Request: fold
Amino acid sequence: MRDFYDIVIVGSGAAGLSCALKLDPIYQVCLISKKSMDEANSYLAQGGISARLAHENLDDYIEDTLKAGHYENDVDVVRNILDKSLDVVEELIGYGVNFDKIDQDTYSLHKEGGHRLARVYHVGDFTGRSMCEVMAERVKVRPNIDICENTTFYDLIIEDNKAVGIRVFVGGQYRNIYARAVVLATGGIGGIFNSSTNYKSVSGDALAIAMKHGLEILNLEYIQIHPTVLYDESMGRHSLITEALRGEGGILLGINGDRFINELLPRDVVSKAIRQKMEEDHSDHVYLSLENIRDRERIDKRFPTVFQACMDKGIDIRKDMIPVCPGQHYQMGGIKAKIDGRTSLTGLYAIGETSCTGLHGRNRLASNSLLEACFCGMKCGENLNTLLPDFRAHMEENTETRKIEDIVDGYHKILVDTIKERSHDFYEYWLKN
Reply:
C-alpha cells in the first residue's frame, strides 16, 4: 500500500471491479476491501443481470422498471441505462462470464417478479459470484492495481471542498491514502439490520461518512425487503431464496396451505402481502411450494445455491416446501450521483448500491442491481480516463488515536438514527423482526 495513488476504489463488488477494469493501465490504482474480496454483496446475487431483449420495445422494459419503482425513478436515467443494458452483458461475456445457454446460440433467460418478459441472464443461481470471480481474476493480474483486503475505510480526506484521499485502518495501524480521485463502491446497509441477506460487514459505511461531510443524499429510507428469505430463528445473514424459483412456477402458501398472492408482483407488494399473511395466521413464516415446477427432481442442479442452503437446514427442495419470510435486501437510496459516479463533492465518485442515481425509484425491479453496478462502474472508469482531477493536497501522516470500533459504531449510529427518523414504522418493523 502506497501513500498516494491516482485512483482509490473502496469496494470489491461488481461496481468496484467494473470500474477498475475500465481504468487506463497508466494509472496507479488502489482497490480497498473491508474484508476479503469475496465478502461483497455482489457475490451473493443469485438471480442474475437483466438486459433489454434485442427484439423488444425499450418502452416495455422502462415501464416495468418505473412501475416497480412507483414512478419515482429518474426517467432519463432509466432510459439511458436500460438502452445500453445489452452492451453491459456483452462486455461481461467478453471478460469471460459464461451465462447459461439453451444451445450454442441461445441464452437461457429467467423471468422474475415485475418483468413482463424473461430478460434475466444468469449463471445457475450464483450469477453474482460468477461475474465477480471472472472480473476479480482480471483485476488481480493488472500490475497497476494494488488490492488491499481487510482494510477498514473510516473517513474521507477533504481539502478546499475536494476529496483528496481516505483514512483507513489496516494491520493494526491508521493510514492516510491520498488520491486524485476517490470512488466509493461499498454496497448497501444490510449489516445494521438484525435480519438481512447482506453480509454483516456491508453496513453503509460510505453512506454514513458522506452524511457526516454534508454530501447530497437521496431516498435514505427507501429500503427493499426481499419477499423470500429462508426462515431461520437466529439473527444475522439469512439465505436468499431466489425470485427465479417463483418465475419458474413456485407459489406462496400460508401455513394452512392457502395461496394468497400473485407471486410475480413487485417485491414490495409481495413482501407486504407475506407480512399481512403471517400476522393473520399468527405465524413467523409462510411456505414456498415448488410443486408446479417442471423437472423438480433436477432442481438441485438448476438451483445449487438454494438447494445447499436448504439442505443445511434439513430441507430437501426436491420434495419439501421451503419456509420463507421477508428480510432486508437492498437500499435504493444513497449518495446522490450521476450515472458516471460524480457526486456533489469534486474528486468523489459513488457507484453501485452506495449511490442513488434515480434508476430504482422507491423499489428496485429484480436483477436491475447488477446491471446498475456494472453500467455505472464502467461509466465511472471511462469518465476518470478522460477527466481525472488534478491533485493538490497537503499530505500528512495519520495521527488517529480513537479505537476503530468506536469510530465505526459512531457513524453507524448516525445512519440508523436517520433512517429511523425518516421511515418510522416500516423500518422499525423489519429491523426488529
